[in-house]
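Now for a sample.
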Amino acid sequence: MSFEAHHLTVPSVKWLGLLPSDLERLNIRRDALIPFTKQDENKLASIQKRPYIACQPLWKKELEIMAASKLKAEIQVLTSVSADYLSRVYLPNKLQFGGWL
């Protein structure tokens, strides 16, 4: 369906949710994080090679943090900060002040 490719693109993409730098900034314990699988490593390497990443320095930095740590997280890890951190602090601040890429 390459003839339809121009209909399948989006003009802009936002990286919403938990960022690798958030994990560092919030001092999330390493034992609460999920180690990368080989498939995760391969996918990350593939994403880092995509041409549009070079034009997105903030995305590139987040991917570099992820590659260096070889760890990922579910958004529920924020309950390790406090039980209501996700709903009372993290999401309201993301929505009000941005913080997505």
